[in-house]
Amino acid sequence: QRSNMNDRMNMAPAQSAMGDRWGATESRGPPTRESPQPPKGRWERPRGPMAATDPVLEQLSYLRGPTTGMETRSAEPKKFTGRCRLFVGNLPSNFTEEQFRKLFENYGEVAEIFLNTSKGFGFVKLDTRQNAEAAKAALDFMPMQQKPLRVRFATHSAALKVKNFSQWVTNELLELAFSVFGDVERAVVIVDDRGRSVGEGIVEFSRK
Could you list the residue range(s) of the whole structural domain that residue 195 is in? Predict the structure, then answer.
């Protein structure tokens, strides 16, 4: 019996050494449950006082997880956007806002008008891009009091160019990502001749 006890005592240090060598440690006390860590590259919900005071961070926290179930955007174009705004030059000095409005009402619904008669130019916004293109084609170079009108699309003052994003980013995801900063009129991913994303896009907001 003493021999068996001595053998067991001699084997205990050897087993402990093997356990240390192979990283097997005996559990001491009840096991603790660790909170799962979020995967790298995924947005984590902001914590602390900033989470309750910053609405942008609060909305950005929801842009995580799979995007395969996102709703498809409506095919109907938005109305009265910055892409429907026209610049009109060579206007007569005695031209009134009522005359300016009637000039474009034949091509669609007019939302807003700006007229500077002293410098002979103005801006007008129509309801759709298609109607704005029709008005531009019909009125550009139209003679008015011995001067040809010049009609051009106005520069969008609230447009951003986005670069260096993944090729898997779609128009819907691009619009969703930037909608936390304001109302997005249009978000388009630029593609090459084969329809593949080049990692760049255009985001147009309703306000600057």
Answer: 157-207
Confidence (pTM): 0.58
Q: Residue-wise over 93-126: b if at least 16 C-beta within 10 A, else e? A: eebeeeebeebbeebbebeeeebeeeebebebbb
Residues paired with residue 187 on neighbouring β-strands, in sequence order: 203
Distance of CA 186 to the CA centre of its chain: 9
Question: 162 and 145, same structural domain?
Answer: no
Q: Taking the CB of residue 10, how many other CB atoms lie within 10 A of it? A: 9
Based on the fold, state whether residues 163 and 203 are members of the same structural domain. yes
Please tell me the distance from the alpha carbon of residue 130 to that of residue 19, in angstroms, as a whole number: 76
- Which residue ranges of the chain lie beneath pLDDT 50? 12, 14-27, 31-33, 35-36, 38-43, 65-66
Judge if 141 and 161 occupy the same domain.
no
